Amino acid sequence: MKNNDRQGAVFLRLMSYLKSYKWLTFFALFFLLSTTVIKSIIPLVASYFIDHFLTHFDQAALLLIIGYYGLYLLQTLLQYLGNIFFARVSYSVVRDIRRDAFANMEKLGMSYFDKTSAGSIVSRLTNDTESISEMFSGILSSFISAVFIFSVTLYTMFMLNYRLTLLVMLFLPFIFILVNLYRKKSMTVIAKTRSLLSDINANLSESIEGIKIIQAFGQEERLKAEFEAINEEHVRYANRSMALDSLFLRPAMSLLKLLAYALLMAYFGFSWQTIGISAGLMYAFIQYVNRLFDPLIEVTQNFSTLQTSMVSAGRVFDLIDERAYEPSQENKNVKITDGAIAFKDVSFSYDGKHPILDHISFKVNKGETIAFVGPTGSGKSSIINVFMRFYEFQKGQVTIDGVDIRQYKRKELRQNIGLVLQEPFLYHGSVKSNIKMYQNLTDEAIQAAAEFVDADLFIQKLPQKYDEPVSERGSSFSTGQRQLLAFARTIATEPKILILDEATANIDSETEQMVQNSLAKMRQGRTTIAIAHRLSTIQDADCIYVLDKGKIVESGTHEELLAKKGSYYKMYQLQAGIMDS
Questions:
Q1: Would you say the pTM of this structure is higher than 0.85?
Q2: CATH number of 110's domain
């Protein structure tokens, strides 16, 4: 889609949000139009005073002066009310746009977040929506006001003297040529500037999240150089935008206004005796020329901001229109009862070209525990991604209790599948809120879940116990404590199926024993799939599957696999050797 067509579509879509605020918009426009009418009357009053009361002063002149300043006060009041209503419309529309963008973002699948940085998404929901707010609260009102003032002023000028008005209109084509030329040249520059601002946000987000790694590996200078490069490029394009503004906006428009003044004064000088132009008419026309050009200058002055707002709105609408959703469900009214799982000849690829899972088949009966081991990139986590419906698999079938996984409602799956990740994520809040996760749980149920996984032991030692504040990502807690809180959060939902994605990989040996005890209790009576890095943690599994390049190359119990002396045996010997050394 061409820039012009896209801008038009984006603008119409923005205007569609006004439908929900018809009365607010109506009053905003009413006060704006009323202000314009008052502005057009004021020069007429001044013109009448000059022609009739400049040489003598009486009671009528006094009343006219009072009326003149009364109109100014009324104009100020109406303008204030118009700004208030436009601001309310602006904030309401931006709230709705943010709500739509956030709601759609939450429905997007993992594939979208794999290719889109968090900083870029944050930039769209904050910086870009704020730019839209500026358009509605300031720029749009100035544009509409300019249209009203231009139309009313031009009409009034025609009524006063059509010859003088035609002279002024000679400059209008030049104005529109300037605006159109500026719009074409600035669009690309502004779009690039906004894109670079998004890159800055993405770079900042990654740097803040990875600050420990950056400092540990002494990468401060490299990251500083990368940030500086993006920052410098942003400044370069911002300067280009400013150069265009400085050339095409106020200076050029002000020059045209001065030329219009010169033409009018020359016309007055040569023609006032023959056509009988009064001093009041001269004053009124000079005022109207000023009122004709000023809104156009303001419009062009704000045109760069409008361009920025349109680019920003387009970026937000791209997020709203993104349809890389989670895999769809048929939403049949079926329930998970036992939690028996089966993969039947499942194949999966992230990009549709390179297979990650290649004809995977296995079964897990109710209450059994199976484990997957293998080198990095063998497909272990991909099995979890497919089972959790984060990604859609291309071939085969996955069933729970004999029912195709696609037939369940998403809520049914989420309520009955408990996921514990290698890196437990804690939200800003309290210990209680992190276990509860906004579910309808009582304090007793929260404490029971914590006691079940032995998290209550360290929670009771905290100064505020379950009300203890949790900072961002739970940085004030140890890795083991964060993992136990994640266990409590999972067990509080009472899932029938448990997914453990290397849940003990980052835990020290001393803490591991406590975590293993908690895991053993969690697994009782639940169908469990575990991805393991440490083979010592899954020796009691009912079946262990060894993956390599997306295929199952070995399967059996711990003892059976050791007896085969294959891949699993080599992995076990390697880890045992490392432990012994």
A1: no
A2: 1.20.1560.10
